[in-house]
Write a structure and sequence with these properties.
750 residues; mainly alpha; two-stranded antiparallel sheet; 28 helices; 73% helix; globular
Length: 750
């Protein structure tokens, strides 16, 4: 590592000496071998590590803020600037508070200008008039956007804390396990930084990097500065690190070990206590989220057909903008606020990041002879989506390619299905497939489709979206989740197996033989398979213990990707260098630690079970059921209003005397052109997909912290299930309610 040397300026003899030999050094070693005077020399290791593991959207945000600062400089007040600076430091973002505020103002301005121009252009080309709704939408949303953009560093910092805090228990576990056999804090931190996942590994790398570049004189000083960022958010982690540091000053070995064990037990106990308070405080925000994001918006759709019937200028795309853009963003933002308060938990690593060879299991794999055939799930899901989507929009396609614009398929009053070629025939029928009709505003303009057939077919649009997304997630995680579950089984049994291994090595049996003996003791278990695989690698391939476990091609860890198991074996290899007794004691202690962590993890799951169960029922049943019923009611109301409009039209044309025609015309003027159930259903169906997606991510994050593999696996289960249930309920309710509405209207002579 290159140090940050400083060269004295005031010594002229030194400068002459430097200039004299500079050309000679350049000739022999190259132009870049000697840094200029006073240039800060930095380590590339941390920067390369940061580039590799920092999220891509961070770099985009950095560039946007830096460019905005050059265009328009808007500095926040000192207090706000300090808070933003602290959040940027946590996220490792190379941005200034001025850049953040400048971007939060400049981006909404550009968004409003482009939105208004685009709206005006589209309205002029396709609507032949301006559309104030869209202009006001862009203006209001642009102004509202300023607040979350200003607070974006705090949101990013909270997300970073959430990810990092999920790894803190394991971080303390790694440091304590390493320092039990080697009382060296620097080596323990380096070991932990190498074996834990980002983002906490990035923080630890930076702590070490700050010492290497001489920003701080010692690791203790660098760590103290880093711990200040966690004092407010995770005090148990700070106290545990302090206990670990105090163990270095204990003269008696027993007291040193006691301090290390206290550090781990402290973070475990505090984790449970904080999660207990979080679980109690979570019910009210989730209830509010459920009401504001699900119940009220969906129930609000019931009265929309009536509202639209009396408001001529409201169109389906106005509702889509509110329900499929504004509301999901609002619900997602509220969910992020709820998650930002989540305390330390347990996160899972993405096993394909740990072992890239497992990435092939994201594909559908089958074998032809000895040849392995891989098919991308993306192609299959695109095919399913395209097919179902085309079925869903088939009423629009049929009408578009109908040159007469009068073709339809109806069920007449005698319950016979027949094709028709006039609007009058469709008005006299019970049900229609397309149900297009002349607009009240302009009789030459056809609006629709209002037919029950089109409404039922429209269910395939959200179904195509739900099945396309859901099946993609399910197929890409199906094999990987099986590998994860197998590793989980191994972790559950691993503590007892490690204890046995520690006892065998303590008895003086070499590690190469001890693995085989433990494999016989725990036969027919997942742990037994792991130890048997290690033993087989040693006996068949002649590997040493380290290679038998960690070899990239044949190592036992390739089939059991687990950070806990990997780190335990790493600690075993390190401690084995100091003798069998130390290795034996290290394994026994690790087994005790794993049992403690597993015990607290199970208590946390039990603690969150009620809340998770409630949210799961919302995802799997309540949301799709309520939405389906609302669509059925909406369809019935639209059908009644459409038939009522037809009857009033007939009354106005046939009424005579006593002002009957005038009364009918006056009554007609109260009604506008309704929005077809076809579009209503698509809006609600897409909203169901969005809400189920957001709630599933929220459930996974509350329960597991940041666990992308489990999140995608849950999405693969919940989205198709919810959309199938929603489609079935909506279809049945629409058919029943329209049948009842048709019979009632016919019974009244309408």
């Amino acid at each position: 590592m290159v140090k940050n040397y400083s060269y004295p300026q005031e010594d002229d003899s030194y400068n002459k000496f430097y200039e004299q030999y500079k050309d000679k050094i350049k000739t022999q070693l190259g132009d870049d071998s000697l840094p200029p005077l006073n240039q800060k020399v930095i380590s590339k290791e941390y920067l390369e590590f940061k580039d590799q593991y920092m999220p891509k959207h961070f770099s985009i945000y950095e560039k946007a803020c830096n460019i905005s600062e050059k265009i328009i400089k808007i500095a926040p007040d000192k207090n706000k600037a300090r808070q933003i600076h602290d959040s940027l430091e946590i996220c490792h973002l190379n941005v200034t508070p001025t850049g953040v505020v400048s971007f939060s103002i400049l981006f909404p301005i550009i968004y409003i200008i482009l939105g208004v121009l685009l709206t005006t252009l589209i309205s002029a080309l396709f609507l032949a008039q301006g559309n104030m709704f869209f202009i006001m939408f862009f203006l209001i949303s642009g102004v509202v956007m300023i607040f979350p953009l200003t607070n974006l560093p705090f949101i990013l910092a909270n997300n970073w804390r959430l990810k990092a805090s999920n790894q803190m228990v394991l971080c303390i576990f790694y440091i304590v396990s390493y320092m039990r056999h080697t009382s060296n804090f620097e080596m323990a931190v380096k070991f932990t930084a190498d074996h834990i996942d980002p983002p906490l590994s990035l923080d630890l790398k930076k702590v070490l990097w700050n010492v290497e570049t001489e920003k701080y004189e010692s690791l203790k000083e660098s760590f103290e500065e880093y711990l200040k960022t966690w004092t407010k958010w995770n005090m148990e982690f700070v106290e545990s690190i302090h206990l670990i540091e105090s163990s270095l000053y204990e003269p008696v070995e027993e007291r040193r070990i006691e301090a290390l064990e206290k550090a781990l037990s402290l973070i475990l106990e505090e984790t449970y206590e904080k999660m207990l308070h979080y679980a109690h405080d979570l019910k009210s925000p989730l209830t509010m989220l459920h009401m504001l994001g699900i119940i009220l918006p969906i129930l609000g759709l019931v009265i929309l057909p009536l509202v639209i019937s009396f408001m001529e200028n409201v169109q389906w795309y106005h509702i889509a903008l509110l329900y499929n853009v504004a509301l999901p963003i609002g619900v997602f933002y509220l969910g992020k606020i709820i998650l930002s308060k989540r305390p330390t938990g347990y996160g899972e690593t993405e096993i394909t990041e740990k072992n890239p060879q497992l990435s092939k299991y994201k594909n559908i794999i089958f074998y032809v002879g000895n040849r392995e055939i891989k098919i991308s799930p993306l192609m299959i899901c695109i095919l399913i989506f395209s097919l179902l989507f085309l079925i869903g929009i088939s009423p629009l396609i049929i009408h578009q390619f109908d040159t007469t614009k009068t073709f339809d398929v109806v069920v007449d009053t005698d319950w016979k299905i027949k094709p028709i070629h006039s609007f009058q025939e469709s008005r006299d029928s019970r049900f229609t497939l397309l149900g297009y009709k002349p607009s009240k505003m302009d009789s030459t303009d056809l609006i629709g489709p209002f037919g029950i057939g089109a409404s039922v077919l429209s269910l395939f649009v959200p179904l195509s979206l739900g099945l396309g997304i859901g099946l993609y997630y399910k197929m890409t995680t199906k094999n990987l989740i099986k590998i994860r579950e197998k590793s989980k089984e191994l972790e559950a049994e691993f503590a007892a197996a490690l204890f046995q291994l520690g006892n065998r090595i303590g008895d003086g049996i070499p590690g190469e033989i001890a693995f085989g003996k433990v494999a016989d003791l725990v036969k027919d278990t997942t742990a037994g398979k792991f130890f048997e695989l290690v033993s087989m690698n040693i006996s068949k391939f002649g590997f040493g213990v380290q290679k038998a476990i960690f070899d990239k091609n044949h190592g036992a860890l390739q089939q059991f990707p687990s950070k806990i198991i990997e780190s335990s074996m790493k600690i075993f290899i390190e401690s084995a260098k100091k003798g069998p007794k130390i290795a034996s004691q290290a394994l026994i202690n690790i087994s005790l630690y794993i049992k403690e962590i597993h015990k607290v993890d199970e208590r946390l799951k039990d603690l969150m079970a009620e809340i998770i169960s409630s949210m799961t029922s919302q995802i799997n049943f309540l949301t799709p059921a309520i939405s389906g019923i609302v669509i059925g009611i909406t369809s019935m109301l639209t059908t009644i209003l459409t038939k009522l409009t037809h009857q009033i039209t007939d009354l106005s044309s046939g009424a005579g005397g006593l002002g009957g025609a005038d009364s009918a015309i006056a009554l007609m003027e109260l009604f506008g052109d309704s929005v077809p159930t076809f579009f209503f259903q698509i809006i609600v169906g897409v909203y169901v997909v969005q809400i189920v997606y957001i709630l599933t991510i929220l459930v996974n994050s509350i329960q597991n912290g940041v666990d992308k593999l489990n999140e995608r696996n849950m999405l693969g289960k919940t989205i198709p299930r919810a959309l199938i249930m929603y489609s079935l309920i909506a279809c049945v309710i629409m058919l029943i309610f329209n049948l009842v509405a048709g019979m009632v209207m016919t019974g009244f002579g309408m």
